[in-house]
Write a structure and sequence with these properties.
It contains twelve helices and 19 strands. By secondary structure, it is of the alpha/beta class. Helix 2 packs across helix 5, helix 2 packs across helix 8 (184-194) and helix 3 (80-92) packs antiparallel against helix 4. The protein is globular and about 70 Å long.
């Protein structure tokens, strides 16, 4: 029986994709805690939902089945004992400081219908929403300007690329760089252990590992070759452990190209500076066009062999993808100011829905014109609010099935 996960490239025609429609978690963003929650600004929820619906509709109009995170999680919690364990596990990850608050949250969540409960977990729970919350301590914390949440919101959830990655016939479930995002992977854990369709798929990395690995740093360049970014949010030790599990005859993958990219927010993942558009065409940020060092991981009998290579990105891609020529499309074309501005708004972060056909943010006009001039079919989506979270169409999507 074939796996329900089938993703062997970045560009094969997209057939099924996982999204999360932004919810009330965005309305629990407040200026005092933006940095902690990994946001630079506060998107308008209603506009963000309209933009996200336009994204989903664009995918559907091009033959893609869209499934939503909340539905897959709910379908994984039909057994009451599993649902109760999910609540306990989720709260254990939530860094709740008092037993009283933990017990109150457990009672509050357990009383809800399953999908409403999941929505509340995603949105976060304000202290004044809890029953019997008005203790002397609560009043004192309120007067002192205390922390307003009993359960933190999870506003980064609409970037479904990061908590897990579908690779070949299986998935990697990630340890996130920031504790703020680690609860996101609990949803993936329950899907891939309890969902009737997905509970048997191979797992190549899991959330209890010691080193962070995030999905935005994983690109499937071919059925044999993966690229992984050594980035602000993915550690080199995680890549080595990941390699031991995925470079096997069963997966079909033979090598990992580890790209060392700048450790800063505007380059947070490999896919913010580099995405695949067609068999020989890539979007890139100009800062990675210089000669670079990469680390190549391959399996040698029962160990992982590690070699270093130096070259331009063209040379590296030509060699490892067996191409005669590579076309690199610069974010912002050749203008330094346009490149910096459109990089900030994820001009390099394209989602390929077929070879030479991509979904992009409409606001990146210079890069989008370059894509069209290069023969790429471009589907633009509105992005004034979604882009405030610092992620593009690839960041907002997790392919589950692509044609080979």
């Amino acid at each position: 029986m074939s796996s329900p996960i089938q993703v062997y490239s970045e560009i094969g025609r997209l057939k099924r994709v996982l999204l999360h429609r932004p919810g009330a978690e965005l309305e629990n963003l407040v200026p005092e805690y933006l940095e902690q929650l990994l946001f630079d600004d506060i998107p308008d929820l209603r506009m963000a939902q309209q933009e996200h619906d336009a994204f989903a509709d664009t995918l559907r109009q091009n033959g893609v089945e869209v499934v939503y995170l909340i539905d897959l999680v709910a379908e994984s919690l039909t057994d009451e004992a599993i649902k109760a364990q999910f609540i306990d596990d989720f709260l254990a990850d939530a860094r709740i400081t008092t037993d009283r608050e933990r017990a109150s949250l457990r009672e509050y969540l357990a009383a809800m219908e399953t999908k409403k409960m999941i929505s509340a977990m995603m949105a976060g729970v304000r202290k004044d929403e809890l029953p019997n919350s008005q203790s002397l301590g609560d009043f004192l914390r309120h007067l002192e300007g205390g922390y307003p949440f009993a359960l933190d919101p999870i506003p980064n959830l609409y970037f479904t690329r990061d908590p897990f990655a579908a690779i070949g016939p299986g998935v990697s479930i990630h340890r996130m760089f920031s504790a703020t995002r680690h609860r996101e992977t609990m949803f993936a854990h329950y899907i891939f252990h309890h969902h009737p369709l997905y509970r048997q798929v191979p797992i190549f990395y899991d959330r209890d590992e010691n080193f962070p690995l995030e999905g935005g740093d994983i690109l499937i360049l071919s059925p044999q070759t993966l690229a992984v970014g050594i980035s602000q949010r993915t550690h080199e030790n995680a890549i080595e452990r990941f390699a031991k599990r995925i470079l096997t005859p069963e997966s079909g993958f033979e090598e990992i190209l580890a790209f060392n990219i700048p450790k800063q927010r505007s380059f947070m993942h490999l896919d913010t500076v580099f995405t695949m558009v067609d068999r020989d065409t890539f979007t890139v940020h100009p800062n990675i066009l210089r000669e670079i060092d990469i680390i190549v991981l391959t399996r040698d009998a029962d160990r992982i062999r590690i070699d270093q290579e130096t070259g331009t990105i063209e040379q590296i891609l030509q060699k490892h993808l067996h191409l005669d020529q590579v076309h690199l499309l610069r974010c912002g074309h050749r203008n330094t100011i346009d490149a910096a501005r459109e990089q900030w708004n994820d001009g390099s972060n394209t989602l390929a829905i077929a070879p030479g056909e991509v979904v992009v943010y409409s606001r990146n006009r210079v890069t989008n014109a370059l894509l069209r001039d290069s023969g790429v079919r471009v589907h633009e989506i509105p992005s004034s609010e979604l882009s405030r979270g610092r992620g593009g169409p690839r960041c907002m999507s997790m392919p589950l099935v692509r044609e080979k």
